Amino acid sequence: MAVVDVQHWLTALPPGVVYLIVAAVIGVESMGVPLPGEIVLVSSALLAAAGVVEPEWVATAAAAGAIIGDSVGYAVGRRGGRPLLARLGRRFPRHLGPAQLARAEQSFARHGVWAVFFGRFVALLRILAGPLAGALHVPYRRFLVANAAGGLVWAFGTTYLLFTVGRAAEHWLKDISWAGLVIAILAGLGSTWWLRRRAHRLDPAEAADEAEPVRAGSER
C-alpha cells in the first residue's frame, strides 16, 4: 500500500523535514506536476496520530503548499498560456493529456472558480487548477479566494479528521495496528465524501447527462 510505504519512509525523518516535504510535494503538485500530494498528506496525518509530528504543522504545511503552489501555477499558466498546457500534456500524457485537459477546461467553463475550490478534492483538477486558471485568464483575486478556501478546508479537514480517528484507533486497537490504519484511511476518505460527490459533478459525462434533458425539453 502506497500510504504505508510513504509513512514508513517519513517516520525516519525529523519532524521539521516532514513538514517541508509535505509543503514541497503538495506545492509542486499544485503547480501542475503530477506528484502524490494526497498520499503524503494522509501519511503525515497518520504520523501525527502516532505522536511523531504535530497535526497543526502538518495541516499548515499542506495548506501553504497548496495555496502557494496553485498561485505559482496560475502565474506560469497565465504567462505560458495554452502552449504551456500542450507541452505539459506531451510530457505527462497519462495525467495531463488532451482528454484530461479538455475535461478540466470544461469544468472551468461550467463552474468558474468553484472548479478551483472543489478541484482541490479531485486528483486531476488539483494538478491543473492553477495553470489552467492562469491560461484561461481567470481574475486572480477570485482565483485566490477559491484557492485559499479549498486549500485550507482540504489540508486542515483531512489532517484533523485522520488525526482524531487515528488517535481513537490507536487507543482501542493497540494490538491490531493494521486495523487502526485501515480505519483511519477509510475515515480520511469519508471526510471528503460530500466534497468529492459535489466535485464529481464537474465530470463531462455527468454534465452531458444533465444537459440532455434540457436539450430535449427545448426541442418540444
TrEMBL record:
Keyword annotations: Cell membrane, Membrane, Transmembrane, Transmembrane helix
Membrane topology annotation: Multi-pass membrane protein
Domain VTT, chain residue ranges per copy: 43-161
Listed Pfam families: VTT_dom
Transmembrane segments: 6-28, 113-136, 143-164, 176-195
Compartments, record wording: Cell membrane
UniProt xrefs under InterPro entries: DedA-like, VTT_dom
Superkingdom, natural source: Bacteria
GO CC terms, sorted: plasma membrane
Entry similarity comment: Belongs to the DedA family.
Protein name: Membrane protein DedA with SNARE-associated domain
Protein's organism: Micromonospora kangleipakensis
